[in-house]
Amino acid sequence: MEPGNNTRILEFLLLGLSEEEELQPLIFGLFLSMYLITVFGNLLIILAISSDSHLHTPMYFFLSNLSFVDICFTSTTIPKMLWNIQNNNRGITYGGCITQMYFYILFAGLDDILLSVMAYDRYVAICHPLLYTVIMSPRLCGLLLLISWVLVALYSLLHSLMVLRLSFCPLVQIPHFFCELSQLVQLASSDIFLNYMVMYFAAVLVGVGPFAGILCSYSKIVSCICKITSAQGKYKAFSTCVSHLSVVFLFYFTALGVFLSSGTTYTSHSSTIASVMYTVVTPMLNPFIYSLRNRDIKEGLKRLYWMPSTKDQLY
Fold it and tell me: Predicted confidence band at 15 (pLDDT cuts at 50, 70, 90)?
């Protein structure tokens, strides 16, 4: 089949997590619950930060953007899967599949880069506290965010264009609950060598690059903390990084699982299980990590909760 014949493909079939009909209500209820928790939890973080002037700092500016990206990240995959289960229809159009893949890569890449930017923010705050407000100015924060969006949008567009050049058989079954890049490439009927070259080269740039930045930032943070004489000062400095480190560990641990499992054959369920951890569990846990480990966020959530009753008393 020639690449131009891709227009004949009306839809792909998403096989989902299981083909057993009796398990579909359980899967639907479980993923609906996790999706609602993810959206509600991250939305609370955004509202708490935006409504509390004490949290209008670079650190929480990037955290609110991370929460927004996490909401979008899960929204690219879970609603479609829930819709398919509810309607007993596994189909997704060719255009819808490419679009879903584009936004999945976009928001996953933004998660990656935002964690690196947040690590740099912690480095400046701990190693250069007197210059923190000067270095991390609103202009720089906005510029870092804009650059992140532009770079990842181009990165996601590159992968989407590389998939568009591939040919597929008329009936394609994807053993996944969404259109994942490596799955689509493996199912193509044309030469995929160039696609794999681009995939692994881009993974090094977008994956290893930000992770190296995080390691570099925290190596300097640890070196700076070791120079602090008082134990209380060391604890206070390190406590500002605990939440971020927890999210970094969770994100890269699950991302590594997805990357390693993508090299297996597409009939394996290992990639699907790793993707569930990466696309659903990690965004769901992020609000809990920051709300439970961060005193400022807890105080902001308390003020957000008491805000309506305070306004009622004023009137």
Answer: confident
